[in-house]
Specification:
This protein has helices spanning 34-42, 63-70, 153-168, 198-204, 213-221, 230-240, 256-260, 273-278, 292-299, 313-324, 338-343, 356-365, 378-383, 397-400, 418-429, 441-448, and strands spanning 2-8, 13-20, 23-27, 46-51, 73-76, 88-89, 95-98, 101-107, 116-122, 131-135, 175-178, 266-269, 280-281, 284-286, 306-310, 331-336, 348-349, 353-354, 370-374, 390-391, 409-413, 435-438. The chain is of the alpha/beta class and 450 residues long. The protein folds into 3 domains: 2-240, Metallo-beta-lactamase, Chain A (4-Layer Sandwich); 256-343, Oxidized Rhodanese, domain 1 (3-Layer(aba) Sandwich), CATH 3.40.250.10; 353-448, Rhodanese-like domain (Oxidized Rhodanese, domain 1). The strands form 5 sheets. A 6-stranded mixed β-sheet has the order 1-2-3-4-5-6, with helices on one face. Strands 7-8-9-10-11 form a 5-stranded mixed β-sheet. A hairpin with an 8-residue loop joins strand 8 and strand 9 (116-122).
């Protein structure tokens, strides 16, 4: 018998392969799906079923690709916002047999209307479910977001409440298998662990501590979530079925001359923020490898071409993996080595870092030509903010940069300086020259004022 979790870094996506009796099922596969075939074959299993918990918004489903590789059937819940052309519909009460295991379907709308969970039973011990694949309805320490239907926000929040009661009714013994872990854009309060049970969540998950349906609805409709533009692309592809990923997940090597003449829509420096700030090629934006999944979809649009700039070839490969998983795979090539570019006489840009003392002095003077721009999320800013600062979420600078005056001086800040450097890089590439980053940002501010 096999039950294995496959984690996709960056997206914090969790998919699963379950097998027994020579057969296997995959739940919520990612686009680069060879890994499931390899694991199944290593265990002597044939993948016969592929289950989706819902139409995902944050990554391209690998279900249609995996189905072509294996001949397996894909199953998706009812009431999708369109026809999922590559899947059969499975509904409440359906039971799918995988050897001695059974996956029983539970309709759990709320995050999306088509959402279903799959309760896992071992027929040799049939009394209670062994576990449940909860998709984006229930996470470890959090529950799913309900902001995808703004005109029906109270309705969907109420549906999520009802769905959570159905999940809890499976029993405290059931092991929780969610589709995401901490760091995912699908929730903000997930615990930094990927193991739990229904019983533990029922007793400890803050959202499951709200017993009143109306109070739960009020809590959910007042949450702040952001929807990057690429979500619309994911939603469309996860109805139509996305193409297979590129066969070679390594960008074509580029020389400095080729990089400068490639004509890509975006030159993306994927090094760490401090390295980027210390020196970068003019016109590049900064999307560190570990931040690509969260922010590339704000700044890069469908069909736009990308050239990557890195410190190592390993960084290039990881960056391409992240981009391919959200269908931003028009990658024209990759260049390694900013220092050699500087040594070759290529003009470099820098973004200075400033300290708490400098920020305090500027605030005290009240300069009209200077703005402290906070690019954190709205929830973070509601908790604490520096008086006199202004706010634009980092992702929303994709358009709102046009509202800013390039003649003014901007100090970018976030929680630590990481997102602030991403924001500064975007403005720098658009001709803003009076920029710096508050190193340490809110963390440093709190330390200085505690």
């Amino acid at each position: 018998m096999l039950l294995e979790k496959i984690k996709t870094p960056g997206l914090s996506h969790l998919s699963y392969i379950v097998g027994a009796g020579g057969k296997a099922a995959v739940i919520d596969p990612r686009r680069d799906c060879d890994i499931y075939v390899e694991k199944a074959r290593a265990e002597g299993l044939a993948i016969t079923h592929i289950f989706e918990t819902h139409r995902n918004e944050d990554f391209v489903s690998g279900a249609p690709v995996l189905a072509k590789l294996t001949g397996a059937k894909v199953f998706h819940g009812p009431n999708a916002d369109g026809e999922v052309i590559y899947a059969d519909t499975t509904c409440e009460g359906d039971c799918h047999r995988i050897g001695q295991l059974e996956l029983r379907v539970i309709e759990t709308p709320g995050h999306t209307f088509d959402h279903v969970a799959y309760a896992l039973f071992d027929t040799e011990y049939p009394e209670q479910a062994v576990g449940v694949f909860t998709g984006d309805v229930l996470f470890v320490g959090d529950v799913g977001r309900t902001d995808f239907y703004p005109d029906r926000k109270c309705e969907v929040a109420g549906l999520l409440f009802d769905s959570l009661q159905k999940i809890c009714a499976i029993g405290d013994q059931a092991i929780l298998y969610p589709a995401h872990g901490a760091g995912s854009v699908c929730g903000s309060g997930m615990a930094d662990r990927e193991f739990s049970t229904i019983g533990h969540e029922r007793r400890n998950n803050p959202l499951l501590q709200i017993p009143d349906r109306d109070a739960f609805i009020e809590r959910k409709v007042n949450e702040n979530h952001y929807q990057p533009p690429y979500f619309r692309l994911m939603e469309r592809l996860n109805l139509e079925g996305g193409d297979p990923p590129p066969r070679i997940m390594q960008p074509q090597p580029m020389s400095l001359t080729e990089l400068c003449g490639c004509g890509a829509n975006h030159l993306v420096d994927i090094r760490e923020p401090l390295a980027y700030a210390a020196g970068h090629i003019w016109g590049t934006i900064n999307l560190p490898v570990d931040m690509i999944s969260a922010f590339a979809g704000w700044f890069i649009s469908e069909g736009e071409s990308v050239a990557l700039i890195a410190s190592t070839t390993d960084e290039l490969e990881k960056a391409m993996e992240h981009l391919v998983r959200i269908a931003l795979d028009h990658i024209v090539g990759g260049y390694v080595g900013v220092v050699p570019a500087a040594a070759a006489g290529k003009p470099m840009r820098t973004i200075p870092m400033v300290s708490t003392d400098t920020v305090e002095q500027r605030l005290a003077v009240g300069r009209n030509d200077w703005i402290l721009l906070d690019v954190r999320g709205a929830d973070e800013r509601e908790e604490t903010a520096i008086e006199g600062s202004q706010h634009i979420y980092v992702g929303q600078l994709n358009e709102r940069w046009k509202q800013l005056d390039p003649e003014r001086h901007y100090t970018l800040m976030c929680a630590s300086g990481m997102r602030a450097t991403v924001a500064a890089g975007w403005l720098d590439a658009r001709g803003f020259e009076k920029l710096d980053v508050y190193l340490g940002s809110m963390g440093a501010w709190k330390a200085a004022h505690s």
